[in-house]
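lol ok so funny story. i was supposed to be doing the assay writeup but got distracted and ended up predicting the structure for this chain instead. priorities right. anyway since i did it might as well share w the group, maybe its usefull for someone
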Amino acid sequence: MLVDSHCHIDFPVLFDRLPQSLELMQAHGVSTAVCVGVELEKFPGIVSLTESCPNILATVGVHPSKTGVREPTVKELVTLAQHPRVIAIGETGLDYYWHKDMPKWQRRRFRAHIHAARDCGKRLIIHSREAIHDVLRIMKEERAEQVGGIMHCFSENWEVAKEVLDMGFYISISGIITFKNAKTIREVVRLTPLNKLLIETDAPYLAPDPYRGRINQPGYVKYVAEEIARLREISFDEVAKATTENFFHLISD
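and the output, tada:
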């Protein structure tokens, strides 16, 4: 079985066809998907979804690029994270692609999420886009290694991957690995210990080949696992077993 460690199945483009998405997960051997929170206003809907779908888990957080939404406090994040279906704090981090002026509020928000994770003992789901040096700096300053977690949709080089691994975080690989220009990530996949790899879709974004350019689905995480198996010259079953065990070890440890 497979685990999609990061998706947004609550987004309308997927939620409006939820039965079909769940059927595709089952058909492709995906036993579990994590619905990652991106704003607090939508958190009740995510919780409701997880309560009606036992194979969907949740996180709570505010995406670093989100503006015009309720700003999270450490206290509120800790309180919301007490729900038994919530496995982590995030999606958090920094995104300098959408906010090229590198606003201070993004960095304050990131620090609040790390503080909340440390306070409640939950893992972190970290997003980084064109901001990896500040992401790593803040992770170290705020002692993110005390809780660990997942570097979501990893797209950096092996040197960065080593720093992430040294802090006790797992490397999560998305459908980008199937793209023709993914040379850097392929090297990371070959070099990262198998017991530190996770797989994800980031659905509805980043659909892997052969569905690139279409709406992504949690069920398509199968294609990520297949590509990792090909790159590492091991069986698909070995990748499926390792990444699934890695995920459940991470959230239960």
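The chain has ten helices and eight strands. The CA atoms of residues 33 and 56 lie 5 Å apart.
back to the writeup now i swear
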